[in-house]
Design a protein that fits this description.
Distance between the termini: 40 Å
Structural class: alpha+beta
Strand content: 15-25%
Number of strands: 6
Largest sheet: 3 strands, mixed
Radius of gyration: 17 Å
Number of helices: 3
Mean pLDDT: 92
Oligomer: single chain
Length: 145
Amino acid sequence: MPIAVVRAETFYLPPPPRRGQPAADWSQVPAAELVYRYMEYRMQRRVTPPTETVDHTYYARINQNRWIGDCVCGSAAIVSPTDPRYGCTECGYGWCTLVFPDDVDAVEAEMLLTEQPHLRNWWHDDDPANPYRPEPEPGADPEAS
């Protein structure tokens, strides 16, 4: 059975319950905010989500079988197409819009064709950081897009 592409809601899970204690329920936490709950638990200190949206857009990409959002500070986090925003737990940069492909399911299905999950990588064609940007059509006006 192939290993599915990892999203925030399948990676950032609550800690196991302590003996005699009820399990934590993170099911109502939006996918983009799960990283903050996870970091608070792991670092044992408060990490508050951003309160404002900033005018910056990131392109989500798949890196070694995980949906990733990269921050301008150099940090990154696992993200999800179910909640297309990203806030940085390192520098505190506010909520940024994430651009996912038009057909997320098709991209994830394409990734499953590569047997080894660590070799599954994908970049959005329009991402300026994409090292494999498609070449423009011969005779096409590069300013037209």
